[in-house]
Structure formats: structure tokens, C-alpha cells
Amino acid sequence: MNRSQLAQMIDHAQLRPQTTAADIERLVAQADELGVWGVMVSPCFLPLPPSEAVPMTVVGFPSGAHETAIKVAEAARAVAAGAREIDMVMSLGRATASEWSLVAADIAAVRAVVPAPYQLKVIIESAVLTDTQIVAACWAAEDAGADWVKTSTGFHPAGGATPQAVALMARTVGGRLRIKASGGIRDYASAMTLVDAGAERLGTSSSAAILAEAP
Predict the structure, then answer these.
(1) Which residues are tagged catalytic?
(2) CA–CA distance, 3 with 159 (Å, rounded to integer)
(3) What 3-state DSSP class applies to 11?
(4) How far apart (Å, rounded) are the C-alpha atoms in residues 184 and 142?
(5) What integer best gives the mean pLDDT of the chain?
(6) Is the pTM of this model over 0.85?
(7) Are 111 and 77 within 8 A, CB to CB?
(8) Closest Cα to residue 85, out of 148, 35, 130, 30?
């Protein structure tokens, strides 16, 4: 995979709580220089400055413990402000309790205000879950109409993306949903390991470093 192909798989992210508007301006400019697919920011920074990159944001971030109505309102406002892809955090507490019908209902409510062609990604925080729970989380996302399942927020102390989790998610959804890996992706080798495992998109704040190592 060459540099330009890899760049088009990257969501160039800046989600640190201390991020400033000036940081976002630099992020968007760098995204255009690198030729990445999208720019991922916190909702308060929408709308983004004009860019070739797809504007995207997070919902229920980073805990997923928000009331469904709050996630729905956040997603609707984000779409109205120009976001074309929404990465929502599922209810992690409900997932760990195996309350899958409630997990799916939460996702479906957000899907209702993020209609096609907008893309809805569901962050399952795979490092926290057992393999059985990862499979069930993917099924819940699929049942609720999501377009993608995503490994991680990158903020949980349990860790971020692993090739094992990505491969399990890919086997579970069987191409019906797409896979995004995120969390701890800082170099070309780790990025390619995740792509080889089945990831079709990578969320990272280390885009420049990764692409500098690409052929």
C-alpha cells in the first residue's frame, strides 16, 4: 500500500480536551497537506474551515454513558453543523452487563438522526470487552443500522486497537459493516498490521508520522 492509498484510510484526529481553535486550524491545514480522508474533532469545533477532508465528529465521547436523548441531540446538531461522519460511543456499561437490546436501541436512536448518506460508526471499546462481548457488540451495531464498528476511543486505560480485536470484528460482521481501528496507532508498521487484520479506516493523531514511513 502506497502513501496516498494509506492517507485515504486515515481519519486525522484531534480530540484532546485542551485542544484550541488554533489547533483545529492547523489540523485542517495539515489534513489537506497529507491528503487524508477525514478530520475528526470534538463537536464544539464544528463547522470546520473549508477543506478537502471529510468533516467528522464524536458523540457520547469518551464514556458512552450519556442518556440516549443527549446522544441524539448531539448527533443531530453535529450533522446540522456540517459533520458527514459520526463516531458514537456505545453504552459501555450496558454492554458489559450484556444488555444488548438497550445497546442497540441507543445506537438506533442516533442512526435515526444520522441518515444515509451520512456514516455512523459505533465505538465498542474492544479492549474492555471479552471476545463474546465484542461479537455481541458488533451484532447490536449491525441490528441498529450502523455503517461501521470501531475498536476504541483511544482514551480508555484498558488500551486501544489490537489486530486480534480487528480480526474478530471483521469475521463477525463479514463485510456487512466496515471496521475502523483507533487508539495507539502511531507508526506505519502498526497501521499496516491493523489494515492486514481487516481495518478499512484508521483513527489517529499521528498521521504525519505514519505517512512519513509509507512507501
Answers:
(1) 87, 150, 180
(2) 27
(3) strand
(4) 25
(5) 97
(6) yes
(7) no
(8) 148
